[in-house]
Structure formats: structure tokens, C-alpha cells
Amino acid sequence: MPTILVCDDDKQIVEAINIYLTGEGFNVIKAYDGYEALELLEKNEVNLMIIDVMMPGLDGIRTTLKVRETSSIPIIILSAKSEDTDKILGLNIGADDYITKPFNPLELVARVKSQLRRYTQLGNLNQQGSSQVYKCGGLMINDENKEVTVDGEPIKLTPIEYNILLLLVKNAGKVFSIDQIYEKIWNEDAIGADNTVAVHIRHIREKIEINPKEPRYLKVVWGVGYKIEKQ
Length: 231
What we know:
The chain is α/β, with parallel strands linked by helices.
């Protein structure tokens, strides 16, 4: 079964998450600050990380940023309701999802499973044997190898970012609303999805556009949604 790294300075929260995840058959590794989490990531094969935003020492935001330098594993951040800016920042630097404290443990388990499904599909599509290459001007996606390039330069995306971009590129010219993007990528009802989708869209733009403020590829259609411009 997949191994989940749970990091929070509140040991009771870590233990509660551990109980629910091990009850679902997951292996759980526990950490209580960002430094310890980074050490455990180096020593263990971890498939997903759950990390709190507010921690002494190395907080969840800086830890996520450090992890993203070398790894694309799914990251779910935990955040109190008063920390909306931290949640958005976490998504902007590479986290895949967030859960607001206090959280429903069953919802957390469901989100873990959802992220792992996407990550596993992303890593194993080569086994399906279907070579798919999508081009839009200088933007190219090789969906067999999960490679994205812009004008020949490789672009590193998280699994969520990749899936959003692939959806839009495969349907170049078609406008998708925020709710449509959320429901197709997260496979759940779009409730309060605006910030989540907007942050990922902004992050994709920063990676694929020369000037994100004047995008060549990923366009906003005001009041409607987003699209990849046909080239």
C-alpha cells in the first residue's frame, strides 16, 4: 500500500490522521516539523504528504517549496480557517490540495485516495501503450511520457497542473468554467472551487508563458472561464 507522510506539530492530530489512514490500509510515517519531514522524505519512498501550514521551525509553506525542488508527489496542506492566504500560497508553490481545520477525517481519506489515483495514473500511463502528442503553437504535451515543453524547453508541472493543462490543450479553443475544470480534474462537486482552480491556473501560466500578464496560450474569458487559445 502507498506510504503517507503526515507532518503536524500537534501530535494528537498526527495520531488521529494515522488511525484513519492505517485503518484504510495505508502505511503512515509521522513527522512533527518541516525539518523532520524532509529527512524522512530522503530516507523513505513516500507516495503522498499531508502537512500543516503553521509549525515552528520550518513551516508547511517552506517545506512544500523545498519538496517541490526535487519531487512531484501529491501534497495536501492542512490549514486553519483564518489562514486563507496561506492556503492560496501553498497551492501557488506546488501543493495539490488543502483541508481546512477542523476537518472531517473521512473527507481527508477521500482526498488522499483521489490524489493518489491521479498520481498513479500520471506515472503509469506508459503501460497503456497509447502515444498521444498534443500541440498548440510552441506548446507541446506528450501524454505518453507526461512531458510538457514550450518552444522545446521542458516544463515541470505538478500532477494537478498537468491534468488541467492537458484538459485545456486537448480541447483547444473551448472555454471551460471554473466549476467544469474542478469537477473534471478533482472528480467531485465544485463547492467553493474558485480559489483552488484560479491558483493552479496562475501557476500554470507562470510556467508556460513568457509574460503571464499577457498570456499567449492560457486565456481567461471574463465571466465565463478559461481556454487554451488555438494557434
